[in-house]
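Morning - phenylalanine inputs below, output right after.
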Amino acid sequence: MLEKIEKLKEEISGVIAGSLEEVEQLRIKYLSKKGSISALMADFRNVPAEQKKEVGQKVNELKTMVTEKIAALRESFALNGDRELEELDLTRTETPMELGTRHPLSIVKNEILRIFEGMGFTIAEGPEIEDDWHVFESLNFAPDHPARDMQDTFFISRNPADILLRTHTSSVQTRVMEKTQPPIRIVCPGRVYRNEAISARAHCFFHQVEGLYIDKNVSFADLKQVLLGFARQMFGPETKIRLRPSYFPFTEPSAEMDISCDICGGKGCAFCKWTGWVEILGCGMVDPNVLKACGIDPEIYSGYAFGMGIERITNLKYKVKDLRMFSENDVRFLREFEAAN
Ligand code: PHE
């Protein structure tokens, strides 16, 4: 009996299988009811009583050995299908992964932020789901102010507080000013929402970067100089800017800024509608009412703010004609920005 066990042990340690099917045959041969191990068990009756303990142990060892061997063989095939073991390429990466490219809006956002960081601004962010106070009220929009109509808002709830999707990143201004005393010098990137029909030129969400600087003796000339620096770094050293008077409830005076058209160099073309200029942002001196609402003394401090659309800047830089391209995630479009990554 002990001899038989030893023989089987030897046999099994040398066993190989070429396929899952062969593994199954081995299982039947050794472990099934009619297999060699069951046969040994049947013989066990005849083992003299004083040997029973030793033989019993050996049979159990053998059984464990066969079970493990078969499990190991099966596993090697489960991992590799039916292929021959030699076909395994052990040099292959475990999880082949193709790296994507950065989204064009992220590329441009990062570039905008980098330029302002170079001028001493730090980055601040705020929530996309906002309340009326941070988006409108604190920014000098009176409850019945017609300027509220300038932005079609997605409301989430009217009661108890007006909860809405922010229509501009100016809400981050308020959040920072409420918590911090000047000097404040921040840029706030983020997604904003407006209830507009989706077309090549408008979308119900887009991205902005807002800038805010509050300190003693900040003037409109400071604003102009920072924006000129930005325009030249973003669009090239020859870029000219012009400011046109405009209106925003939260700034006074307010302006819109144009840059010289970089396609025709200012001579006039279809892109700039024959004006030589393209509009890129809104800006102005922070209204004293806004400073007051946020707990900053307008007798001591003054400041400027500006806000731009990242899609708009990206369109100007990369001539993307249809805004919808930015949210469709067509990889053919995204791959075009590989070089800019
Ligand atoms: N918040 C304005 C908008 O969304 C842009 C702006 C920001 C204008 C700061 C002036 C100052 O259109």
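Note: Residues 52-80 form the longest helix (29 residues).

O.
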